[in-house]
Amino acid sequence: MPKFREAIKCITGASAGIVCTEPLIARRYLVKERLGRGSFGMVSLVLDKKARKGEELKVLKEISVGDLKPNETVQANLEAQLLSKLDHPAIVKFYTSFLERDSFCIITEYCEGQDLQCKIEEYKGAGNSFSESQILEWFIQLLLGAQYMHERRVLHRDLKSSNIFLKNNLVKIGDFGVSRLLMGSCDLATTFTGTPYYMSPEVLNHQGYDSKSDIWSLACILYEMCCLDHAFTGHNFMSVILKIVDEETPLLPSRWSSKLNTIMQSMLEKDPSQRPSAAEILKVPYIDEQLQVCGRRPKALHRTHCKVN
């Protein structure tokens, strides 16, 4: 434990969190509900007794020190560092991190509207579907969030509908448990992780991961919002992999606009160098027309809740 605490101090630093030997959870946070287990540990809904009005409810991630291997302690602290640097309405807000007893704790924004996967399953179960205007609104928000993090050399590496959270009908990218900062001139991160339905061909072929792999995952999420199903399906893990790597990319049904389908197809190019960046997709006329509603000022693009026609 002492060595772990020293490692936390060295890696986390004052800006990303604090090491606290007093019971900070009990002193500042009141656990309201256990939400389940996340990518690294227990997740709870807590009440922050010192928060500003309207921000009292937050999410607490507790990562057991005993469950963590040395490289996983780095992952936990890296998650905290990454989140502390990201400030965008389409990204779940990070508040603080600290070590308490046998747990490394992370406090993040609470999104009351469940995750996108649950929303999709809810609509599918009721026999409903999302309108193209609603899908475009969410898709643009995700693109703006992706553009923001990619400009800061941050990869998510596990984008999927269950990691997209809803708050006041806005979508927010969350669960950066396996995110990485691209260091120096290195453009590829080679760790193989994530959900197979959203994995790109280059990741499945162990050719590395860059921002274009996040773009592939966003295309899979776009397809899922439109069709209420995965873009690539199969009877088992290997059959899904073979479809992603070897088969033609799926088309959206004819009820969806050809412009939206063209954008999705470009994001699902097998060759990552042929995929557009998030910034390039935002300049596509069909998408740019929707952004005109918000205005072209950078602050408007990054901060305004875009309503599409």
UniProtKB/TrEMBL annotation:
Keyword Lipid metabolism among UniProt keywords: no
GO MF terms held by the record: ATP binding; metal ion binding; protein serine/threonine kinase activity
SUPFAM superfamilies: Protein kinase-like (PK-like)
E.C. number(s) listed in UniProt: 2.7.11.1
Keyword field: ATP-binding, Cell cycle, Coiled coil, Kinase, Magnesium, Manganese, Metal-binding, Nucleotide-binding, Nucleus, Phosphoprotein, Serine/threonine-protein kinase, Transferase
InterPro entries tied to this protein: Kinase-like_dom_sf, NEK_Ser/Thr_kinase_NIMA, Prot_kinase_dom, Ser/Thr_kinase_AS
EC primary class: transferase
Pfam entry (one): Pkinase
Cellular-component GO terms for this entry: nucleolus
Cofactor or coenzyme needed: Mn(2+); Mg(2+)
Domain of life from the UniProt record: Eukaryota
Function (record text): Protein kinase which plays an important role in the G2/M checkpoint response to DNA damage. Controls degradation of CDC25A by directly phosphorylating it on residues whose phosphorylation is required for BTRC-mediated polyubiquitination and degradation.
Protein family per UniProt: Belongs to the protein kinase superfamily. NEK Ser/Thr protein kinase family. NIMA subfamily.
Protein name from the UniProt record: Serine/threonine-protein kinase Nek11
Record organism: Callorhinchus milii (Ghost shark)
